[in-house]
From TrEMBL:
Residues 191-364 form the VWFA domain. It holds the Pfam family VWA. One of its GO terms (cellular component) is protein-containing complex. PANTHER family: COLLAGEN ALPHA. The keyword Zinc-finger does not apply. Residues 1-16 form the signal peptide. The lineage of its organism: Eukaryota, Metazoa, Ecdysozoa, Arthropoda, Hexapoda. Gene3D superfamilies: von Willebrand factor, type A domain. SMART domains: VWA. PROSITE patterns: VWFA. This is VWFA domain-containing protein.
Length: 515
């Protein structure tokens, strides 16, 4: 018994109970907002929002940090949504348009929420407030298209969304803060290839402008941890910066800005193939490091030469490279863009012009920062995080016999949140928390928990997602991963379960007997 207690003190064990604060009334904060947005985006009920809904949550009440967010007598929740009844009935005499009915059906199908049963009080739960905001803005967009740029979105917010003391400029100023934050340096590992459109449709000036946006984007990465390269394509690959290079940040940005404009046809296929070749030149040690591989392909429309670019994107996916498609301008073939993104709408972006790209490039930075690094069994990984709100994302394939993760704080204090769900874990969504010391994690069994989460799994999930975050600023942490239950934590936990069961049984029997 003593031994059991001791190991229980030393090790936390996988409990597999999901904490989901997006359904907790009155929850607030960035992680909660991100969890809500991730789930709604992933459901694909609504088209891409150009980051508008997140910006609204920050403008309205700083992700709920404003103290009056959950004031008595008001149930707008994190998104300050005042027109809840319109999300149920958008036509006079309590009737519903076909568009709204489709939205309700899609919400029911993907999230299991019967929207007609929702009441205004439910909006205290962040997911419900977020859904209301999304439904209302979709309904308004039927009549009033919303621009993707910050100024246009700000006017739209002022005129249509905000019912309380809207001030011109509020949205713009708050969004600017978010943009600065999203472009803050990121010290994580990543291999990134930029694939740039140099076709004649683009035009010299727009080409230079988009190179400038890319130079700003690469400034986010720490070149000691990140490899960044570039290819320019037109009828063929005309210029490149190798993925393995030892350029300083300034030199890299300078070479991006000074690549020549080829001004010919658009052979996107050739561009993607050129970038795949660059990934193959990486040294073996780097290939083995588990660093995420990302290729961002810019295009201002349909390809006009070469094979179908979707085929090249499939080849990239087979080589373990994630492709992100960025369409620029109004001649975008959406289906082709989606194929270039290997049918993952989370990696498909659009913007009106090469000039608005400057502002929208932040979305690539957001995506790149959250791509998980793959952890290897029997290896260690060291992570340094300077910023207080910096996070690092990891993926671990947990074998049948489980895995033991040892976390050692070399500096400061870092926590890890983990799940086996496809949603990225954070303080708002996790099955367990890693703190200093050993944690044994066993793969989940199929059961009520997975059925409840409306997954359609025939095999239990094996991939664990882990997010590391410092408790305060300036942290250095090391993770060791070992196969199986190295220190007997699982055994202790199993014993604990039995003890707990016996104790509860005794309690129940005693209670019954006493009656
Ligand atoms: C919607 O709610 C508001 C206030 O909560 C109310 O004044 C209005 O009449 C309601 N509209 C409908 C169509 O029910
Ligand atoms: C937005 O920021 C500008 C510049 O800092 C400032 O002059 C303006 O008053 C701000 N507007 C609002 C509505 O806060
Ligand atoms: C690009 O090519 C077109 C003809 O195809 C020509 O009119 C234009 O001046 C060229 N632009 C540049 C910047 O070379
Ligand atoms: C793009 O090209 C494909 C095939 O070449 C064609 O079927 C499609 O209609 C084009 N789309 C646009 C928007 O031009
Ligand atoms: C669940 O799985 C079955 C059989 O594999 C499939 O036919 C069905 O479409 C799946 N449902 C969803 C919602 O993915």
């Amino acid at each position: 018994m003593y031994e059991t207690l001791l190991s229980l003190l030393l090790c936390t064990s996988a409990s597999g109970v999901l904490v989901d604060r997006s359904l907790e009334a009155g929850a607030r904060g960035r992680d909660v907002v991100d969890t809500v947005l991730y789930r709604i985006r992933r459901s694909r009920v609504f088209p891409d929002d150009d980051d508008f809904i997140r910006r609204v949550a920050y403008t309205e009440n700083m992700f709920g940090e404003d103290s009056w967010t959950y004031r008595p007598g008001y149930a707008g929740g994190l998104w300050n949504t005042d027109r809840f009844n319109m999300s149920q009935y958008d036509r006079p005499y309590r009737s519903i348009s076909p568009k709204l009915r489709n939205i309700h059906e899609a919400i029911k199908k993907t999230m299991g929420i019967d929207w007609m049963q929702v009441t205004e009080a439910d909006l205290l739960k962040p997911l419900y407030s977020g859904l209301t905001a999304w439904i209302i803005t979709e309904l308004f967009r039927r009549q009033f298209p919303r621009p993707s740029n910050v100024v246009g979105q700000g006017e739209w917010w002022h005129d249509l969304y905000s019912a309380q003391r809207p001030v011109y400029g509020d949205f713009q100023n708050r969004t600017l803060e978010l943009l600065i934050e999203d472009m803050r340096p990121f010290g994580g590992k990543i291999d990134l290839m930029l694939v740039v459109d140099g076709s004649c449709r683009v035009g010299m000036e727009a080409y230079a402008s988009s190179l400038d946006s890319l130079a700003r984007l690469v400034g986010v990465f720490d070149l000691r941890e990140a490899d960044v390269g570039l290819v320019v394509y037109s009828n063929r690959v005309t210029d490149k910066i190798p993925l393995t290079n030892d350029l300083t940040m300034l030199a890299l940005q300078e070479s991006i800005r000074s690549t020549d404009y080829p001004n010919n046809t658009a052979n996107i296929y050739a561009g993607i193939m050129g970038a795949i070749n660059e990934f193959q030149t990486l040294p073996n040690a780097r290939k083995e490091s588990g660093a995420p591989k990302l290729m961002v392909i810019f295009t201002d429309g349909n390809h006009t030469a070469g094979p179908d670019p979707g085929l090249a994107a499939e080849k990239a996916a087979r080589a373990g490279i994630v492709t992100c498609a960025f369409g620029i301008g109004d001649a975008i073939d959406d289906g082709q863009l989606l194929r270039i993104a290997n049918n993952d709408a989370d990696f498909k972006f659009k913007t009106e012009s090469h000039y608005t790209l400057r502002e929208q490039i932040v979305r690539v930075a957001q995506r790149a920062k959250t791509m998980p690094q793959t952890l290897k069994m029997g290896s260690d990984t060291s992570v340094t995080m300077k910023d207080g709100d910096a996070k690092r994302y990891f993926l671990l394939e947990v074998p049948e016999e489980g895995a033991t993760i040892t976390l050692i704080n070399a500096k400061g204090e870092t926590r890890g949140y983990w799940t086996f769900t496809p949603e990225p874990p954070s303080s708002a969504l996790y099955e367990g928390v890693l703190t200093e010391g050993e944690t044994f994690i066993s793969p989940p069994r199929l059961g009520k928990y997975w059925r409840r989460r409306r997954t359609n799994l025939t095999m239990p999930p094996k991939n664990m997602l882990l997010t590391l975050q410092g408790v305060e600023a300036d942290n250095r942490v090391t993770l060791w991963i070992d196969k199986g239950d190295v220190i007997g934590c699982g055994f202790a936990a199993a014993k604990f379960d039995v003890t707990y069961f016996l104790l509860s049984a005794t309690f129940v029997i005693t209670t019954v007997l006493l009656k």
